[in-house]
Structure formats: structure tokens, C-alpha cells
Amino acid sequence: MKHYPHHIDLKPAPLARGTVKLPGSKSISNRMLLLAALAEGTTEIRELLASDDTHVMLMALQKLGVQWIQHGETQDFAVTGTGGMLPVHSADLFMGNAGTAIRPLTAALAAIGGDYTVHGVARMHERPIGDLVDALNAAGARIEYTGNPGYPPLHIHRGNLHPQHLQVRGNVSSQFLTALLMAGPLMAKHQPLTIEVIGELISKPYIEITLNLLQRFGIEVERHGWASFTIPARQSYQSPGNLHVEGDASSASYFLAAGAIAGGPVRVEGVGRGSIQGDVRFIEALQQMGTEITLGDNWIEAKSNGVLKAIDADFNHIPDAAMTIAVAALYADGTSTLRNIASWRVKETDRLAAMATELRKLGALVEEGADYLRVTPPIVLEPAAIDTYDDHRMAMCFSLASLNGAARDGTTVRINDPHCVAKTFPDYFDAFARIVQRD
User: Fold this and answer.
1) Is domain 7-24+249-437 annotated with CATH 3.40.50.300?
2) In this structure, what DSSP letter does residue 423 have?
3) Does domain 26-223 fall into CATH 3.40.605.10?
4) Which of 320, 387, 391, 417 is catalytic?
5) Does residue 161 have a pLDDT over 60?
6) Is 371 an active-site residue?
7) Same fold flag, 7-24+249-437 and 26-223
8) Is the pTM of this model over 0.85?
């Protein structure tokens, strides 16, 4: 396990340039692991993300009797599928704070049947799962809350799921729909299953990732816009053989923003114009702010055209990457507004409140709304000790506050509890240090 100090002090850096090889996508990695476990045949997964979130998924699958091996010191894994019949029918599963693990796994366990308990860290027990549980219980599952209703921990009993129709709300987390889509073929053994989305569906690009991976594992899904999805009967997951995990597009945002703020060019490798991840659309926001973006098949590069322009945009489609824009707004030529980001409040921390608090420490004028954030940059950034709330994205975002934007004075920024980056990017601060030039 990597050792982290209690804090990291980032001295002013006037320039950022270089190339970063991205770690694998968390969203793709955990989806691939579960689908490979449910499939028939063995799946070779190349460049799986090494992080806390993938570790808890691997450990949970192991406790459920799924066989997997890691090839040497690489991040290449072979997962032997179970054909949708998990060998272990009773287990206690610790899921950390990994929403991409606990939500799809809960749906799969309810569909397969058994006696399972799932729980996580304290913050996981504050993150909602009620919309998913309600949808499953309405279809014949027997999932019991063993703590606060609507939240983990959960006790999953053997139910009787043979639904033709499910309904799930879409306005809290797209992971609830993803979970039902991934468990759908397990429930549609004898008749088609239609999953209806109630209300607005947020984070739609993450559903595109899910549908893309379902197709790779041999599952056909009939789409009716974003309103409903039908899974035809008698389909089963089939291993596609070999899969490669794309570099994480959310992680790319920090380095691309560094190139925008501090000159660049900064190039990220592992994700490019053919990406299946919606967070690559982060570059559209940077372009609106005046950044020059160049794309290749497997890389993206950003460099500055001068002072960033203030932005006013809807970020419902890329809520994670949008956090990077909130910090980039410190270097803009006016007030920036990030809209439709209410989902920030139910992430690893209440990100709207946390972001507002930490931006103010740096001297910004911040207006925090129920679903928006308005950021007016200070004339000069103030020295600050940034609290990270055990949230990896808070730590990575605020590293950017150590950069010198055009006509800005630099300032020393302290990042408290930097170990939180282990959730998705254990080597983040090493990678960041390689692209910044402090002399």
C-alpha cells in the first residue's frame, strides 16, 4: 500500500507541460469486473484501474466465489465467469465508498438470490440507494435496510424476481439505472423486461458506458430514447475474450485544466476521440473558456490561449469533471456559473458545500445554490489549507490552485489528507508533479 503524508504543500508553479499516462477508468473497470463475473467464459481485462474502488469490487467477487487472477505485477486480470450463478450464496460484503461497486452488485445479488449483507464506510451509509432498492423490492426482491431507511447497509434475502416492468427514478444517480440494466438479463430469463425511467435522467453519458459494455458482453437492449429500456428475454452474458480499459476521462480533466491554466501543452494518453466515456466532453467546457484542444485516437492535448474566459453552463451530463471547472474558474476573467449539479450533494461528500467552502479559503466570492455554484475569482489567490473531506476529487481539483494563471500571483496550497486520492488515482500527486514547472 502506498504511504501518504498528512498533508502535501504545493508551491507556486508558473508553467505546466508534459505528458501523463492515465490510469484506467473507474466506471469502466468496475462494470467490466461484474459483467465478466456474470458471463460464461473467461475474460482477460487489460489495464484495470488500481484503486480502492476496484479493490473492494475484486474482494467482493472473491468472497462470492468468483475466480480471478492477476498477471504478475501488471494491472491485467483474468476473470472466470460464473454464467450468472454465483458459487457462494451467503456472504458479508464490504464495499468501501464505491458507488460503482455497491449499486450494480446489489441489483445482481437480488436477481440471483441468496443471503447477503452489503455495507461500507460511514459516508457510504449516507449515500442514497433507496430508489434502486424500492425498484427491486417492487419487483419481488426482499432487501432490508439494517440502518437508516433509504441507505446502506442492506440485507438481501432470497426473493422472487420475474418482472416484466420496473420503474426507477433518474434524478438522483444514474447508477441506479445502470444497476438495473446490468442485472436485467438475470431477471429477463423467460420474458422481456422493460425498465422505465421516472423523471429526468442525470449523467446520461454514464448510461452510454453501461449500454456499450452490455453489448460487448452479448446483451441486446432496445432503447426508447431516455424514457425506457427493454431487455429481450433469454439472453445471457458471454465473455468477449479480451478487453482493454480506457484511461479515466475524469482524471484527465485535472491535467487538461492544468494545460489551460498554466500554458501547456499538456497531453493525456489513454483516452481520445473514440472514447466511450462522457467525461471527454469536459474539453468542450475548456474550449468555451478559450483553451486550444487537440485530439488523437488515444490522446488529448490542451494549451492556453491566454486568460481563461468565464463560463456559464449546464453540467448535468458531466458532474464529476465539472468540479475541475469550478477550480479553473479561479483563473477566469469574470464570474463563472455551473448549473444543474445537484447530484454533487450525494457523492463522496456534499461537494457543493465542500467546494464553496474551500474556494472561499482561496479568496473567491462564491454563491452556493441548491443545484448551482457561482464563482467570482479573487484578484490574487490567498494561501490556504484545503480540506478534502475524504473525497478524491476535492484533493485533485484543488491541486490546480497552485498554478499561476495569466497575470496571477501564485500561492502555496496545502492539501490535507491526500491519501483520499487512492480511491481512483493513487499516484496522482506524482503525476501532477511531473507536469508542473516550479522554477
Assistant:
1) no
2) G
3) no
4) 320
5) yes
6) no
7) yes
8) yes
Q: How far is CA 368 from CA 23, 45, 73, in A?
A: 32, 41, 45
C-alpha cell at 136: 427491486
Q: How is the chain split into domains, by residue range?
A: 7-24+249-437, 26-223
What confidence tens digit (pLDDT) does each residue in 254-309 have? Answer: 999 999 999 999 999 999 999 999 899 999 999 999 999 999 999 999 999 778 99
Q: How far apart are CA 134 and CA 109, in angstroms?
A: 15
